[in-house]
Protein: LTXXQ motif family protein
Organism: Spirosoma fluviale
Amino acid sequence: MRHNLLIIFVQFVLICTVVGRGIAQSPSTALALSDTSHHLSKDQLAAMKRIQTESEKKAAPVALRLAQTVKQIYANMLADQEDKTLRQQLAIQMNKATIELLSIKGQSMRDIVGVLTPEQKQLVKQEMQKPNAKADLAELIGKMFNVAKP
């Protein structure tokens, strides 16, 4: 059980890191890829910034709730006598919060991909096929389009 908690906590940290990064850049700049015919427009950059901001607002209270649950889990683990019923209740709470964070992240990725043109999506798809490609879609798009992180 402790091993599972550790895995879920690591997933939580990774999710919060990724959700917190997002994509942001000065709206006055449309950055080109190596092929200068492909770039993000001002509107695309603004949409991505909006998506990132909305995603962070949705994720923040859930991440806080998850962090509080994890703190309770640790306190229960360190108690002289661990409460097994509480452990099960907290595990359920942690799983629900983790699922909610993953859902927010997934919707954010769908929304960001929805901002891309078909040609840009094809470029991202090709980049994903490379063995050294970023595993996180937001990071991959940020890298490909040279979009600065906040």
